[in-house]
Amino acid sequence: MESFLVSGSTDYVSSDHDESVFSLSSGSSSNESTFTTSSTISTSSIESSPCHLKKFKFWTKLPPAFQQNVVKQLDYKSRCCMRKSSSLNRDLIDSTPLIMSYITMKTDRIYNPQTKQLDEQVVFSVFTDKWKCVNLHGVDDFLALFKNKRSVAQSFWFDCFDENKPCVPKFLQDLEAEMEKRRSVCKIRARKIQWNNNFKLLQPKGKVQKPSTSDAGDHFLKILNLFDSKYLRSLDLVKSNFTSGTINMLAKSEHWWLLKEINLELQQKTVMDFFLTAEKLQYASSSFTGPEIWKVVQSYQSRNLSRGSHFQLTVNKPWDVEEVLKCFQVPLRDEPIGGKRSPFIKHTQRLKTRNADLILVVQLNSEVAKGVICRVDHIEEDFGKE
Q1: Which residue of 119, 141, 151, 206 pairs with 136 in a disulfide if CB–CB is 3.0 to 4.6 A?
Q2: Contact indicator for 133, 127 with CB cutoff of 8 Å
Q3: Is 357 exposed, middle or buried (0-12, 13-18, 19+ CB in 10 A)?
């Protein structure tokens, strides 16, 4: 996948012009966008244009709705270049939300013109459905993504964002300071956070790196507080190095109790009640007890959940299905889905919910307990989707 680097590209540097003059390419890039009078701007026409400045005398006379439609077709680099052309275009860009499929943030070695060498810095990439990824770095570039209050990333992925690397705490410190200056108007908006920090640090020969004395939750909680809790609905922590202490810390934050979906792998035991507000739960651990499994089943049965809400509990150490079923405080009745028994499913229990049109179907084997809220008359269809 082709990508390019934009640094400091969002600052307004040009003065107003009578005729709106702007270039939709910069630096050594060979691509430039041009506008047509059609309401649809294709990516192929954008990439095939020559690279030089052009005057668009008619641009300021076009209807605002048409101008916004043009901006929506531009990639992030082109938006930054257009933003620098005039104050009118700057306001237009800032008023048009940036639709982002996902953002990745990690550390990488990039060239520093001041030191004339490769320095490790925090970098991030922005992806959408319509254009190729853009690689960026710097606090200003990052916050520019969320300048419009309607700009929301569907997913935000932290890839080995290790607090032991000097550039990471420096970036977070600068980010917190800048967000404090901008106050409530500046928050990271994302529907989902994916956290991948489950890796072993490579020790250089002859050097011994001291392990971090702080819990991984301290680092993650600082980052979590930078996100707007009104938008965050999902946490994916399968590839994390979290402990039960980490979960205890996260459960005290407002973000945790507003989550609709939690995906977690945790080998240490923690309080099951922390997960009983989620509508979609996937939880892998070393073991679960019968009472813990029944507590989750009761939670999904008693809450007024919508169709498709589900849970899946997975263990490394197999449990005794008969012992687990002894904890079910309902008459046991094995009713396989579709009337077909499977050697991989030891028991299928159907439980009534608060909605007469919905039913909770729970399947168990020696390693997995799965429950799905299904329509009474479409159990096979709804259970299979999850």
Answers
A1: 141
A2: yes
A3: exposed
Distance set, CA 261 to CA 10, 174, 220 (Å): 34, 30, 18
pLDDT in tens, 356-378: 999 999 999 999 999 999 999 99
pTM: 0.76
- 341-345: list long-range contacts, CB under 8 Å, 24+ apart: none
362 Cβ contact list (under 8 Å, min separation 6): 297, 348, 349, 350, 351, 369, 370, 371
- Asked whether the beta carbons of 283 and 275 are under 8 A apart, the reply is yes
**Where are any strands of DSSP class E within 88-179?**
100-112, 117-127, 134-137, 153-159
Q: Is 22 exposed, middle or buried (0-12, 13-18, 19+ CB in 10 A)?
A: buried
Name the amino acid, one letter, at 203.
Q
| Count of helices and strands (H, E) across the chain | 12, 15
Q: What are the CB-based long-range contacts (under 8 Å, 24+) for 50-57? A: 51/25, 52/23, 53/21, 53/22, 53/23, 54/21, 54/23, 55/19, 55/21, 56/19, 56/20, 56/21, 56/22, 57/19
Q: Pairing between strand 234-237 and 100-112?
A: unpaired
pLDDT over threshold 60, residue 210: no
CA 280/CA 293 separation, integer angstroms: 15
The token duo for 119 is 């320095």
Summarize pLDDT for 212-233 with one digit per residue, the tens.
Answer: 545 667 888 889 999 999 999 9
**Of the listed ranges 49-63, 171-185, 316-330, 356-370, the one predicted with least confidence:** 49-63
Phi/psi for 58 (5° steps) reads -90, -10
Structure tokens of 270?
Answer: 């923690």
Tell me if 69 sits within 8 A of 86, measured CB to CB.
no
